[in-house]
Amino acid sequence: MLRLARYLKHYKLQVTIGPVFKLLEAVFELIVPLIMANIIDIGVKNGDTGYIGQQGVLLVILGITGLLSALICQYSASFASQGVGTILRRDLFHHINTLSHKEIDKIGTPSLITRMTSDINQIQLAVAMLIRLVIRAPFLVVGAMIMASTVSLKLSVIFFGAAVLIGLTLYLIMSKSVPFFKVIQKRLDKISLLSRENLRGNRVIRAFARQEEEEKRFSHAAEELTNASISAGRISALLSPLTCIITNIAIALIIWFGGLNVNIGGLSQGDIIALVNYMTQIMLAMVVVADLVVIFTRASASAARINEIFDTQTTVKEDKKEENSKAENDYAIEFRNVSFSYGEGEALKNITFSLKKGETLGIIGGTGSGKSTLANLIPRFYDASKGEVLVNGVNVKKYDLENLRNIIGVVAQKTVLFKGTLRSNMQWGKENASDEEIEKALKIAQSWDFVSKLPGKLDFDVAQGGKNFSGGQRQRLTIARALVKHPDILILDDSFSALDFATDANLRKELREKTSDMTVVIVSQRASTIRNADKIIVLDEGECAGIGTHKELYNSCSEYREICLSQLSAEEAV
Length: 574
Hints:
By secondary structure, the protein is α/β, with parallel strands linked by helices. It folds into 2 domains: 7-311, ABC transporter transmembrane region fold; 331-573, Rossmann fold. The protein has helices at residues 12-46, 49-98, 101-107, 109-132, 136-151, 156-200, 202-207, 211-237, 239-263, 269-311, 371-377, 401-406, 422-426, 435-444, 448-451, 471-484, 501-514, 527-530, 550-556, 558-567, 570-573; strands spanning 331-340, 348-356, 360-365, 386-391, 394-395, 408-411, 420-421, 461-462, 489-493, 519-523, 535-540, 543-548. The strands form 3 sheets. Strands 6-9-10-3-11-12 form a 6-stranded mixed sheet, with helices on both faces. Helix 1 (12-46) runs antiparallel to helix 10 and helix 2 runs antiparallel to helix 4 (109-132). The longest helix has 50 residues, at 49-98. The radius of gyration is 35 Å and the shape is elongated.
């Protein structure tokens, strides 16, 4: 929690004046019982209405001044807490964007979302309470006991005893309830995970009629969260009645022993009223302290989760000291004895090949053979465990990541379009791309036929995730988006899977004719999609089963021939 305190430096004024004005309000609260005592002992006792009116006006002034002080403090607390939350959320988002796919896969998207929303909200609440109550509550407790001592030193023993008992009660209850708050945040992660899975996979769930099963899963997770919250609530619920019992017993003792002192002239009736008020203030302040303990405990757990993200450093480090200029080399892509592992076992083993500029590389293999993994090493989404990956003759680790990815266009397996206009989506790779450039890319990607019929054409509004397009249309649009930036290297990771064979063939024909200067990497399950590539790599369980042209591999590689014959007739395959 203390590590995140650095964000308060942006709001030094609010952090300073907020507690000062809250302290001023507390001082006025401590003065009020003494004025009440004087009204009773002097005004009421002597029937002096003038004195009562004078003291009443003083009470009103104190009340108004206290209200203004509270408002200033409240504004300062709100301004600082919201500001800290905004800056923290921005920095956390920035840091997450520096992480590689490996770290994001490990932490999980739902957990990251929970930390950026719920956990930061807890930090914001803690900052607000820090300014508003952290100084006020202890000051009221100590101040009330001191003021009570000035009224009656003997009866102040009751105050000290009650304060100790209330403090002990707070400690016992908090020590039991605090662990549950950490569990609650983890349960929220699980709820976020299930919600995200169900909302994104809604169509699949309905297609398999799995609504009831998914509802049971969600209900079970919600029940776990409820049980943890109830367990914490049950223990915390004891706090208020126990503190009230202790306080009321203390008040009864004050009235009893105070009454005896009044009878012998040791105390006045107004003094008893003042002592009761101070006891009530102590009780209320101690309850606030209990709430603060809960708030800061939850904030501490949230801060630990946020710091965990800040402590997570990307495994893909940039070496900005090296020159990023292209080496004098005819090869666009080179793999030299490259191996890669996600954790246990190797996803790729000793892959070696080279691809000249302007050539097309096809990557094919069974499910889980490492095709996408190989493609992801080129733009350095992951770092190779062993060996070297070179782009334009330079090791990818020597590139500034922005420079590397500016010369590479990637069309991922999962098509993603963003809410906005079609034009804004097409300009992701090149912000100043003209409509003519976009139209050219759309024509190459076989998308212009349906885009030209849309209302507004390039001004057509794209729904979140591109849900108002079919799967094949989304694939073609994402290919067009990559083509707009005209990269040196274009990676198409299984980007033809939703296309019919005619569209697939036309798209490949256009790519070959209109982007002859571009190096193209095509990852596909279809032999027909990659058969005309200049070079084909066949992967089998992470190992290279063969490299060559379609004809060479069909004659020499049994794995490739088996794939071809499973999809094409013997005549077509040849």
